[in-house]
Amino acid sequence: MTAVLPIEKAEAAGAERGWRLHLTGLAAAWASILLLFHRDAADIVSIWWNSSTFNHCLLVAPLILWLVWQRRPELRQLAPAAWAPGLLLVAAGAGAWLLGAAGSLALARHTGLVLMLQGAVVACLGKAVAKGLAFPLFYALFLIPAGEEAEPFMQTLTADMAMRLLAWTGVPAHIEGVFIATPTGNFEVAEACSGVKFLVAMVAYGALAANLCFRSWPRRILFMLACIVVPALANGVRAWGTIYIAYRSGSTAFAEGIDHVVYGWFFFGAVMALIMVCAWPFFDRKVGDSWFDPKGLQRPGAAPGGASKLVRIAAAAAVLAALPPLWSAAIASVGARAAPADFAFPEIPGWRRVPATGGRPWQPHFAGADLLRMARYRNAAGQEVDLAIAVFARQGEGRELVAFGQGAAFRPWAWTADSDPPPGGKGELLYSFGTVREVLTFYRVGDILTGSRPAVKLETMKTRLLGGPQRAVAILISAEQPADGSPIRPALDAFARALGPIDRLADRAAGLPQRR
Length: 516
Prior knowledge:
alpha+beta, 3 domains, eight-stranded antiparallel beta sheet, three-stranded antiparallel beta sheet, 17 helices
């Protein structure tokens, strides 16, 4: 019997050394990945800190550490061993980052970085340990600042629910999109009122609570559905309550003040408490229950993996992570061309350049463009048309041809409807203080001319992944509706025909050699 103790001590010491070795390898892989993508890591932390929608993410990293610490007794019974298939997750993250870099999609880049860090855990610590850490690894996805994309849908949903409740409570109201008009005043379900902040934080909280309080998967799923549906419904009630109070009190300022105080300080906590109180009787995880069964994940007494295999796999993870930025930089250097200092507007048969006087001022918005120039033309019939050209030598973060806020509609002009699209372009109607303007927009990117924003994104990704012309150009032809109310479109179509091939004009403006 006395010989057993030295053997057990030797096994324990070997397991401890195995953990130290593999955690060191993981730390090295993580350090390499974070060094390679330090800008994206800094962007993520900046979003956590500066965006109220994602302030809760500051708690996610400490919560992950706490979740791992809770599983420490079970993890000690496992022997880490580097596992090559885990590199597939690193490769998937690298691919997501490359697509995000090619399409200027921050969400894809941030997702790719988190996937690479998760993959490094699986590759360096092994399959058994990764299964034991399944939930903490999954919960790391909440480090990604995602969810604001749902704002338009949530705005519409909240406005529709508020309108139904107003009808049921006898408040006369009219809705236009997300604008609700009542006898008391006008209300807008703005982005901040959409409930996305509440919903994003509630989903993160719900996932944590579902893991901590439930063992049954059906109960976990029902709880998560409640964490999504109840906040969405509650936000509609909150919007209705604000408008109802304003209608009954006759003061929009009073109602908005109540809304900000109640929603900011009490509403979130009250809804969260309501969900937890209703779910309490159905909790089925007992205090002291093990988080997983080590014997079911790995044979008892298994030896830790070797150092040489760990070094190879950790190095492979770092190399896989390094490939996308190297490829992206190589492609950019091949297809890059500096923007011209300026360009000359074309001479157009039947039209002559005139000063841009009269009418309501209009200029499209293309933040980050290397060149943005406008000119006005008039024909013999007195019709006037504006021509705007925006040139990007190369697109990048914050300097994209199509993005939120980019395009023809810019204050004081607002988009009202689409008009008939011209060949290779799109048509829009804008409105500003009683004035109507129609705009035909053509995008030239890669080898295509299009009016489709998704097509621009896809072509941009293609050229930045496989090479090709990196320039991106927008050509906009626009005119105000004449004072006599006659149609705008005939003048725009006549001007476009006289202008000639739009793609050649875009290439000339970008300084590219002309095709014969």
